[in-house]
Amino acid sequence: MKTIENESSSKSEEHASIPKEFNGLPVEIDFDGAGRPFPAIIVDDQKFPLGMIKTMVPGGNIVEHVQTIRNIIARDDDVLICTYPKSGTHWIWEIVSMLRKGKAEYDTKIKETAMLEFISKDQIEALESPRNLNTHFPLRMLPKDLLDKKRKIIHVMRNPKDATVSMYHHFKAMRIGPEGSVYSGTFSEYLSVFISRELQVKGGWHNYVTDFEKFAKENPDYPILNLYFEDIKQDPKREITKVAKFLDVPYTEELITAVAERCEFENLKKANQEIKDDYITRNIAHDGRQFMYRKGTVGDWKNWFTVEQNELFDESFERWMSGSELKFKFSL
Q1: Active-site residues: which are they?
Q2: How far is 121 from 62, CA to CA, in rounded Å?
Q3: 29-60 tens-digit pLDDT
């Protein structure tokens, strides 16, 4: 039987097992509402989970990898998809892939094969053109050459309540701990981590989305398309047409309809299981099962937030977004 004493001892042992350094870089620890540690490496005010660095980042040195990504050379036909985690990256990547091929056919490769966080410089250079690159890196960490050459960027935003719930479940399935452990806390306990990271200078959700908003305003001639997860969910054909026009690819009503159907959540989930070689999931899932696709809905946060948590979150959200013109939908 699990007791309070056993739980406390387990958390103490987990904390004690976390190294003070990894690859010569200091490890910083956040704690959830129950004192569970969240070890991370900080690069330019951005926190990267230690477990992710160990299992996913080429060479295991996130500082060197960030610099490598900053220095990659852009190609003429590169497109970069940028999202805060759990905001529809797989979804929009598949849409872009189909539109650029002109066929509503799934790519047999997963999007992580073109994800800046997880592939080396050699792997990036080996990708065939046109490259549909994608990342969760914030604006300040994007490849300098890509920005200088004004390559197209598609930025997708999701309301932070649903993104938080989705990230909680992501951490419950993903080996983020230093010893390959998954997150064992409750949603309420995890929510405190999300809030604390929002209070940091640059590292949270609101900084991510407002940095792109500010960039678009200050660079009106830069080709950037800002989309909302909720809008794609509400009217996929309308939003997919926006993407096609932005990419300047030929399209028909039939293609848009077919892409919308193929990219429905359950169809994408099935394709990921039956068509794609999802080696990423096998490497980082604690039980080897697919966990990237859970619900893909709008408003699931209502099943997780208490009334008090929702009120406190709304107060914080108002402060975070003061001065922003971004408008988020929390239900449909």
Answers
A1: 136
A2: 13
A3: 877 777 877 788 888 888 887 877 877 788 88
